[in-house]
Amino acid sequence: MFKKLTCLTILSVCVISSYGQKDSTKTLGGGDVDQTTMDSLGLVNPELQKKYNAGVKAFTAKSYMDAVQRFTEVILMDEAHVDAYFYRGQAFKGLSKSSEAIADFDKTIVLDPSRAEAAYFKGSILLDDQDYENAAKAFDKASGMDKSSEKYPYYKGVSEFQMGMYELAVKSFDEAVKRKSDYAYAYNDRGSAKMQTGDIDGAIADYKNAVRHDDYLSFAYNNLGSAYKAKEDYKSADKYYTEALKRDTKYHVAYNNRGTARYEAGKYKDALSDYSRAIEINPKYAFAYNNKASVYIQMENYKEAVKNCDKALEIQPEFMEAFVNRGIAKEMLKDIDGACADWQDAFILGSENAEQYVNGPACTGK
Amino acid sequence: MNKMIRNILTLAFVALYTIAISQDKDIPFDKRLFEDKAGFTEASKNIKKGDFEFFDGSSDNQAKALEYYLKANEFNPYSSMLNFKIGACYLNSNQKFKSLKYIEFAEKVNPEVDENIKFYLAQAKQLDGQFDEAIVNYRLFKDQIKRGDMVQRQFINKKIEECETGKELKAHPTRVWIDNLEDSINTEFPEFSPVISADNRGLFFTGRRPDSEGGKIDKTGFHYEDVYYAERGFGGTWSKSKNIGVTINSDSHDATVGLSPDGKSLLIYRGINSKNGDIFITREKEDGNWEEPVSIGDNINTEFHESSASLSFDEKTLFFVSDKPDGKGQHDIYMSNWDEETQAWGEAMNLGDVINTEYEEKGVFFHPDNRTLYFSSNGHKTMGGLDIFKSVYDAESGDWSEPENIGYPINTPDDDVYFVVTGNERYAYYSSYQDGGKGEKDIYIITFLGDKKDALLADAGLLEMEYKQSEDVASNNGGDIINDGGDIVENINIAKKTLVVKGKVVDGKTKNGIASNLKIINTKTNKTVKEVVTNPDGTYSVILPAGEDYAFTVSKDSYTIASQNLKTTKKDASTEKTLNFELFPPVAGGEFTLRNIYFDFDKSNLRDLSVNELDNLVSIMKSHPTMIIELSGHTDSRGDETYNQQLSEARANVAREYLIKKGIDKNRIQTKGYGESRLEVSNQEISEMKGWNAKNAGHQKNRRTIVKVIRE
Questions:
Q1: Which CATH code of 3.40.50.300, 1.25.40.10, 1.10.150.120, 3.40.50.1000 fits the domain covering B3-171?
Q2: Which of B537, B526, B541, B585 is nearest to B561 (CA)?
Q3: Which of B177, B470, B576 sits opposite A353 (nearest CB)?
Q4: Domain B176-448: which CATH class?
Q5: Which pTM does this prediction carry?
């Protein structure tokens, strides 16, 4: 899955916290006057303010249930209390109550059409729920409401990327880096979108910009490796995967990817070592087992290939490539029935190669 | 270290040094050099006897010479001359691979041992696959040849070319397994010339075993050649091979040369010597015995040597080998078409310059795909001796493709000949004398692994998952005329790629296999493409062009009929399909399904090709004059339910009308339409099927006519 989702979550918490801290300090004293009079006088009802502040305090302490209760009390007292809706929405979000949260953010926007953050939080909920189309709409709205923030077009781009609308995503990321020229994540993700459109050189330039602005982005280095691998420049790919691993020594995905670059370069022993390291870091990493099997097939060590495919399939029972590979290894061990059974499974999972093998002479010509 | 130990070690060193030296030194058979005078005398006698045979020249005699030489060699293994002679004998034997160590030693210790030693060494190196060293020695030998001796120089140039080809082929080996067939086929005696039925079930071969007919031994020391056979069960195991018996085997040489794809016509070679021999044909009778072999005819057999033959899948074309003088040189490949009028093979035609050369072309095999010709030649691009080549017929242009060497390790620098391929192109068989065999020549099975199957990587990048490109699938060509170097040869169905369809017909109650009549109609052309009687155990296998649709109908007296249809695509070429049938006696309450009653789409008009199945039903009803049946029509679930109901009723009535027209009393036929109410394959099952073809086949299964026996 995409690193950017993790990033989104981190940023969300960041923003929520800053709002909470900012508004919790907004306290006013007052006497016994009705809310309308107080509003007209620009004054705040102290009881309401007390409940509101209690809500903010609960929210800051991540006591979301309590926060919801306090903000609800505020809303009961003042049904046009924008902040109460806004923070209750965030508290609902903390409780994973998406529809309630979205309703509060919508209400916030109705009450305060300039509150871009509300549209942003709505978008973030939809993004987490994988409703990418509506997420993109919400982020677009936020972006229109606040033309200075880089994160709104950025997450719009993320949503579009997830929908497979890579060209639109590139445009959104363009807007994000226009708003913040050192936005490393946006460069990285624009690079990824460009990769999907086939613009590998553009992607490489973006990944390089990403690491120029943030040298610690191990995944951007990893992506650089993948971009060079796509260009069949395995030497450069190896170099950038290695850079990724320098920055994150437990980055099992980068080990796997570097192994793949080394495999393609014919360095089977080095590839094997990388896949083994990936497995050491993450023993449940089915990809590396499958890829290890691929190396063993190249080395004509078919028994080990079968063992590694077995492991991959134990972890991920519908792993199409592992079925194909195990079939290849079994065929070479002259277990034709076993090979055909594996290819049949791979075929059911959608492998075109396996379809050919199943219908080929090995399986039909016993 | 004390002195005694030092002396012992010194002596041991001297002894080892002496042995080492002696192995690099020529020790001629000089009486003065040997203390064992009796042993020397015995060895000398063996050399004399060997020389007597050796200088006679024939390969049979050289085999005898070798025995004597090897005995003498046990006494003194360091004679350059004796080693040279042993090597030379091996080069003329079917164990050529054993020659190298003797020739190499002879040349090493005495480069003057024979004026042609470089040539012998080059040959031995070539046979051992040491092509670079072979080339060096061929060149050294070429330097010895007089400038004017163009024949000899050309011959050496050809040998050098062979080595270059060998290097090229060995660098890109064909992906195959080559396995010795199990003990049930191979023995310590020679087994060779395998021929195989297209479905890989029936194997016939030539053996020289003690149980040969007549029990005679020829001058090679082996029994006369006889035909043997074995059957492969559905589990893949070969039965114990047996002598085919006196009908085919005589007390002279009887050898396998070809087999029709269905395994029912066997071509054999009968000859007194290697200069004169003819092709005979025998056919399997319904009871499993074989007819008396008969000469294949005067247009094929001549006073010259006809040594190999192969039939096309429809048995209308025969390819054969002859060394008659009108050819391109030595043995050539010819073809002949079956003449329906004269009921004989027509005039033989040389296959022309693309296939035949001034050198040898032998061991012809025409694949059941009806377009690929395999043969052995030492005139094309060979890596040494006879190599196996293939050439594909292009029906559109009428040309044979340039013969292609089928590659190493099937081909070797030695002679590779008599190679047959199963219908699905997965397996091939040939004979070879190899280390690790059961003894003498053995039969080997070659398993073609096809193009390398790429292992799939799972790329866990943030961006993508990568998959390898799928391999190309060969496409087919069509056409029906062959052009042989300018002569148009007619009536040959060399056209499309084929597939093998096999299966078994059983009694539905007992499940025992039964011989029955199988008729296959191409439903696109409405032509009968095959009518066969299944084997006594009910099994059958047929070769059919891929890309056509077929209706299979099985019938037998005292049984109802069974039918199935088979849609094929060009992608099915070289694959195998299995269609099994169950036949039931016509008892009251029983029912059977007619799957090949065809109507125009959405209509109740009976299509012509339905006639076969309905005619079968007519004949069953005529042979059971009291039988009353119900004909019920069933549709698939596509379309409106009411409409399908009406359509099924109309269709059942149309079938009834046909039976009445054919003389069946109308009171004996009741009809019913079930529409889509009794689907054989449910909509749920069809929806879960993968791909349009599978779904369509599911719907096809639902469209059927069921015959229910109301009264016997």
A1: 1.25.40.10
A2: B585
A3: B470
A4: mainly beta
A5: 0.66
